[in-house]
């Protein structure tokens, strides 16, 4: 059997229930939320820490450390990213820790604010390799020559930005993927320098891309492929033709030189013989 509730009693209790509800909701609306999905986004040592969510009525502080002391890098920001490049390029062989603290916008917090830790970050191991650039290429007949330009990095020494080769040294290599223009199957070629010399099957046009590679890594070994470049089939045919023509011209020149020497010797020999034959007649 339902217990009857008097209207006057409900009216008296309503303000109390409403007040309790507001007390519970108001702090939740103004309480900073802990960050999540902390991710390092680093390419050629340009390093940015990203996270979620977008803050509502609060802000973020970002701290970084390579040892026991924390250093604030981004203070009371409402973005969800913080550029930590200046810290991480000081020594790319150190392991860095970072954390994101959620704080009120006036930065007053009686207790330790909620924070989230990012995964450890070792720049030399974890930064991704940027897309390389093909600096120069030339195909002559059945030989393709390609030169790759080392990408610049965010690492600076004595006021100069270092290249990937400056930072990684012998750990850096390149892979060239090349194929005939009419084919979809690419062949790989590797080099520990910046130059490729590829013997080709035919003097036809070829297309190719390049990737930077750090083989000592377990993850993030390869960069994305460079923009595709293609050699001109007509240039390659003309190149081979010029080589053949040049060889023929060289042989012809040598032939005429030898022929001239031979004829000259023959002429001298005949002249000498005529002198000998005419000498007795003069003496008589």
Walkthrough of the structure:
The structure is a single chain. By secondary structure, the protein is of the alpha+beta class. Helices cover 31% and strands 34% of the residues. It is built from five helices and 16 strands. The strands form five sheets. Strands 4-3-6-7 form a four-stranded antiparallel β-sheet, with no helix packed on it. It has a four-stranded antiparallel β-sheet with strand order 13-12-15-16. A three-stranded antiparallel β-sheet has the order 1-2-5. It is rod-shaped. Residues 18-29 and 234-238 have low confidence and may be disordered. Residues 127-231 form the Interferon/interleukin receptor domain. Residues 1-30 form the signal peptide. It is found in: Membrane. Keywords: Blood coagulation, Disulfide bond, Glycoprotein, Hemostasis, Lipoprotein, Membrane, Palmitate, Signal, Transmembrane, Transmembrane helix.
In short:
The protein is an alpha+beta fold.
Structural key phrases:
2 domains; 34% strand; four-stranded antiparallel beta sheet; 284 residues; Immunoglobulin-like
Number of strands: 16
The CATH C-level class name of the largest domain: Mainly Beta
- Reading the helices and strands in chain order gives HEEEEEHEEHEEEEHEEEEEH
**Class by alpha and beta content:** alpha+beta
CATH fold assignment of the largest domain: Immunoglobulin-like
Q: State mean pLDDT (0 to 100 scale).
A: 83
* Beta-strand fraction estimate: 25-35%
Over all CA atoms, what is the radius of gyration? 39 Å
Stretches where pLDDT is under 50 for at least 5 consecutive residues are 18-29, 234-238
Helix content: 25-40%
